[in-house]
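ARCHIVE CARD
SHELF: 3
SLOT: left
DATA:
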Amino acid sequence: MKHTHGATIRAYSDATDRDRLADIWLAASRVGHPFLSEADLLDQQAKVRDIYLPQAENWVVELNGKPVGFIGLIDDFIGGLFVDPSAHGRGLGQALVRHAARLKGNLDVEVYAANEPAVGFYRHLGFVESLRRAEDDEGRPLAVIRMHLPA
């Protein structure tokens, strides 16, 4: 366990964390991805809970013993970084990315171009754009930016 700003970063436990992290994903995605419909978000939430969380290497950030965010890694790729909107602005997302960089060295991430706060967040941490594509993973006409953080 790593402590930062009164927060603790710990490994994910599928048995106790899965539903809470899926709820955090939904709350954060409603804020960060307002261009997606509620139906799309709910469909994606089920995939996060049932497919992505079990497959990824997840790290959870807690405040006062309660999970408030997580980062999901597939090797050195950030499959997801989500912090409950009620805990935004406290450096928790940065702490999770720094934790992942210590573990992995290089990092890559993909973000929606329309999610300008996320693009700015990653730029602030030193990520640089490496690729841009016109459609997301579901084939929707939403531009996606791939960004890279060198070790």
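SLOT: right
DATA:
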Amino acid sequence: MESFFSGALNLMHKLWGEFLYILPYLAFGVFLEAIIRTFKWHVKIRKALTRFGPLSILFATLLGTVSPLCACATLPLVISLLLAGIPLAPAIALLVTSPLMSPAAFSMVSGMLGLSWAYTVLFCAVFLGLFAGYLTHFLHRYGFSEDLIFRQKLPAGDFHDPDYPVEELRCECGKQLSHKVARCTHNKFLVFCAKFWEGSIKIGKFALIGLVIEVVVTAFVPNGWIINLLSGEGIWPILTLTFATIPLHLPQVTAASMVFGFFLPDPGQAIPLAKGPGIAMLIGGPVTALPVMGVFYSMFHKRVVLLYLALCVCGTLLLAFTFRFLPIAL
């Protein structure tokens, strides 16, 4: 019994140490996202998406990189934009980009894996959004027009209405603390504090999940094969990680936390993470979140689901192999 408590204490001590290391980056990222949400800058960009034709793909990609919304929150937004008249191409670009990058994700990846990895993930997010968006735009005439993508006609109405008939798309934002504060007061500082609290809980939860998984795995499971995958320079680690992460619910912060834990450095020490496998893990995992794919499959025709998966997988492999063979160090 004593050894059990001693082992549990060691695990908690390691988890606490890793969490303290990432805490400043978590706080800074949440701070930036709270400002964006308080002043609704991402909403202002979103309103421009229906007015710029093919150029809206670029705007959607940029919105995805600054939006504080996760993949599960982005999908109802994307469907509402489609119903409002936005083409499928910018909608796909937004849906691809949003899970990959946000101010909080950039801050935490830079803190855990270094600035070079943060800029690499940002570049990959922008590239994948543009790649998916413009390829979808090209395929518009081949069965991917807006009137052919849904399995059935969705009922009219506001997703924010608590009585909206499609439960999967019904928005629960009205129950959030920040919305309650906004209804009671117009004080921006109080609204900011509420949004900062919400962001801390949401993003901190995903970061802790990644750290807990890593701490438990390193303590009880022989993890040499995982480290070999993440640090491997061959082709198979890239293929293995890309396809193994497809069925996983692996948000960006969780993926980065797991990788960080396996290669926990002293401050300033470089992370020995191979370029190709690192991109496969940090890009391929978040972009195919399982809950999103479930709702996606229930709402859209199979060809749209297959298109989305093909764009995500092919784009991830293209990026991973390109960086694998580029003569640059991260």
